[in-house]
Amino acid sequence: MKERQRHEIKYYIHPVQYEILRGRVGAALSRDPHMPDADGYHVRSLYFDDIYDSALKEKLSGIEKRKKYRARIYDLRRDDIRLECKKKEDVYITKRTLRIDEDTYNQLLDNRFCCAGIEMPPDFTFDFKTKILRPVVIVDYMREAYIYAHGNVRITFDKRLETSVDSLDIFDKEIFTTRVFEDDLVVLEIKFDAFLPSFIKDLLRVEHFNKCAISKYALCRQKMYKHFASGKGAPN
Length: 236
Prior knowledge:
Order of helices and strands: EHEEHEEEHHEEEEHH
Distance between the termini: 33 Å
Radius of gyration: 18 Å
Largest sheet: 10 strands, antiparallel
Number of helices: 6
Helix content: 25-40%
Number of strands: 10
Structural class: alpha+beta
Strand content: 35-45%
């Protein structure tokens, strides 16, 4: 698994701003080949944390060097499960991805590591075992993505961010989810390697938006806490 340090900048934008930006970006950049249509593709992730909620607390505290694990699927497919470790070090983001089968995924849920046929990276195994990582929240949204080869630029609009408050089964097609944003905010993410081409800066005009340290993981955990505080039960 290769690690590539990248810049990742995030903004909250309103629906009207989103419609304007998607028109500009869609006219100038290539559509992600994985997008089946203009609305984008479905992303669902199951995040892991330890019994102390260290990943959540480090994020909320603004710790500059931190990492978190998640299992991710696209369009509810069972044949493409990805175990990812995402790390932040100062201004750089790195992501390592390991494709796993459903049996390995189920072992991770129980913190078992037989993993026949899957070579788990030593640090992954170490973290899951020593930190006793367990699944804590589902993050669910639609992603609209555009790419530009020079600078390895990727522009994404993450829409309809939702979380489940009563299940941690990422394959459940009937899972009940609840919206995280009441005003249909969209998360604009700008990812690139060493540089962001000036014409893309001109397209986005990000100086008009407030850059935010957005974490969909933290937002969904907080949504769950509000749900529990209302006297309702925890996920199954």
